[in-house]
Structures are given as C-alpha cells and as structure tokens.
Amino acid sequence: MTTHEGFWYAVRVQFEHTDAQGRVFYAHYFRLLDQARCAYWEALGLSEDDVRQIENDTVIVHLEADYTGPAALYDVVRIHVAVTRLGRASLHVAYRVVNERSGQDIVTARMVMVQVDLATATSRPWEQAFREAVIAYHGPEIAPS
Domains, the chain, ranges and CATH? Predict the structure, then answer.
C-alpha cells in the first residue's frame, strides 16, 4: 500500500532563473529539480548529513525533460518529486513542475541516479536505512524483488 503519492516543493522564480524572453531558461529547471530532490530527502526523515552523503555518493546517469509551458519572474512553481523505482543501486525519480499562477503543468522530467563507490567508480547498493525510508514513503511496489 502506498503511503504517499510523492512530495511537493514550491519555489519562486527569481530573475537569475530567467532568459532574455523573461521565462525560466530551460537548464535552470534542472537546478530547481535538484533543490526539490534535496528537500524530498529531508521529507523522508534524512538528516542534513545524510542528504550531503547521498548527493555526494550518487551520479545522475539519465535525465530527460519535456517542456509544455512557461514560468516567468516571480511565478511560483511547485515541483512534485516521486520515486518510481528503487533498484539495488539505482533510483528512478519522476518530477512534475506546475506553474501555480496558471495551474499549468510546465515540465515533466525523469531521472535515474546510481549510488557509487567513489574509490572504485562502481555502483554499490543503497544502505538498508535509505531503502527502508523510501519504501516507507512510497510503498513496497517501487522496489521490485
């Protein structure tokens, strides 16, 4: 049984996020997704030190996004973060960005992260406490046997 459908993070668009057209520059969405993901880790009950460790010991091996609408200066965007699959060493994360002013979905993104041993540059399994936190939040169906 899923206990949560995901996590929402809100951020106000700043001037530095925009381009010459006054819209959020596409690459800046990736920075906003990173912010939302770090807030998500905290929502799982992980400490700041845990978040630093996870972000230090993972690599993003796949990232794709679809842009379907704009956001402009001072718009508030809400970013939905949900783990869709928890593998032995990988994590699939889905993002949905909504412009609060218009109510429009403006970006969807999919990311795959892999936990690595930095000394050997090879994948390593997620720690049990991390796995348990993710499964407790989303339910056991995200971690296929």
Answer: 7-142 (3.10.129.10)
